[in-house]
Amino acid sequence: MKRYKLSKMIGDGTYGSVVRATNNETQELVAIKKMKKKYFSWEECVNLREVQTLKKLNHPNIIKLKEVIRENNELYFVFEYMDANLYQIMKDRDKPFSESKIRNIMYQVLQGLAYQHKMGYFHRDMKPENLLINKDTVKVADFGLAREIRARPPITEYVSTRWYRAPEVLMRSPNYNSPVDLWAVGVIMAELYTLRPLFPGTSEPDEIFKICSVLGTPTQENWSDGMRLAAGMNYKFPKFAQTPLETLIPNACPEAIQLMTDLMKYDPIKRPTASQALQYPYFQIGISAPIPVNNKYPNPQTQRQENNVSNISVQQDNSMGRKPQFVPQYGVVYPPKSHPPYPNQPFQPRFNPEEQIPSNSKPSSKAPSPSAKTGRQNNLIKNARYMPGQSTRTSPRKGIPTGPSGIPVK
Ligand SMILES: Nc1ncnc2c1ncn2[C@@H]1O[C@H](COP(=O)(O)OP(=O)(O)O)[C@@H](O)[C@H]1O
Ligand SMILES: [Mg+2]
């Protein structure tokens, strides 16, 4: 640790506190996360999920772990430094982000997620605090809860931060998987538009209540597994009619609504995968060539240095191995300045055969018409039973407990 000059405290999360520091030799700015727990052996450190996952992931939209240091039984992770997290940049804003800014953030988050899922890991704690921003570049961080996609069910840890927790986790599905990350991304996307959390549940039952108040009560048709899970615990979903997302998020374009609607499907298998989400019309505005989804990412198998976690640095390949005509660079804000005409065609997702996670995704075929934003809509917003961001009690963003269900049993 003598090699670093610590400056300012930048974060205090669940498992560690994060300090900004400078490398004395190179003057490079880094973020050092000191774990709260003590570690008495190196082996214990190396086996940590965060280390195991991050040493295998090398992508421009995933935070880079540069070094792991154990000193006096304290464990430190040295990361590349980022200016802020997404929550910090949202909380002080009163003016909404431009749509191109949101599109750019979403694009990068989904790229990071698509890569991570393709590499066989799902994150399980996607939330604004874990998405880091440096100028226009966004990176997924905090892999403390990451799991292997191929891990055998049952998964009995019902984790993730409540407001971003997928319904199947709330309903204690024993085999939830990577679609939980897509749910969270949908919720985060809505929050980027409204600058308010969409489902700020004050408890697990309240979380389900808020979800149902927007999506409507789940049915046998749209989520048969959910009905089974509910029946298994003798739980009755609260009764609500659906409130269309366009009434709650009036500043989102129809393509954005279409993407959010599909990401926030009750049934995890009906949500698009991260790669499929990147193919949505939302990301095809002003693009003259298809977005490369089957990128040849650098192969961590060949780059990782097996028994040397303290030297994780690997080359970044920003070209992604392929050059389309239009290169949606990381950190480049999307075109265009004016919106092109909205597509009238029903959207059919293209199936990506390289996708690891099977999905029967059937995104909604209706692209809402641009004329939807009318006075009638404003009335609907006023009359909506649930307004995003409204919660009966204030809920702390940090330290939201996870654990055994608080679902009422009738
Ligand atoms: N590389 C980084 N650069 C800048 N800030 C960071 C970095 N890593 C973490 N932080 C800040 O510290 C907070 C907590 O870090 P995180 O890795 O999420 O730990 P925890 O597991 O404790 O939540 C983040 O929300 C973010 O604000
Ligand atoms: Mg965190």
UniProtKB/TrEMBL annotation:
What are the names of the required cofactors?
A: Mg(2+)
Q: Where is the composition biased (Low complexity)?
A: 358-373
Cited CDD domains? STKc_MAK_like
Molecular functions (GO terms) = ATP binding; metal ion binding; protein serine/threonine kinase activity
Concerning PROSITE patterns, the annotation shows: PROTEIN_KINASE_ATP, PROTEIN_KINASE_DOM, PROTEIN_KINASE_ST
Binding of ATP: at which residues? 34
**Keywords carried by this UniProt record:** ATP-binding, Cell projection, Cytoplasm, Cytoskeleton, Kinase, Magnesium, Metal-binding, Nucleotide-binding, Nucleus, Phosphoprotein, Serine/threonine-protein kinase, Transferase
Its predominant location is other
- Where is this protein localized, as stated in its record? Cell projection, Cilium; Cytoplasm, Cytoskeleton; Nucleus
Q: Domain Protein kinase spans what residues? A: 4-283
| Name of the top EC class for this enzyme | transferase
Q: Which GO terms describe its cellular component?
A: cilium; cytoskeleton; nucleus
Per the record, the similarity remark reads: Belongs to the protein kinase superfamily. CMGC Ser/Thr protein kinase family. CDC2/CDKX subfamily.
Name by which UniProt lists this protein: non-specific serine/threonine protein kinase
Native organism: Acrasis kona
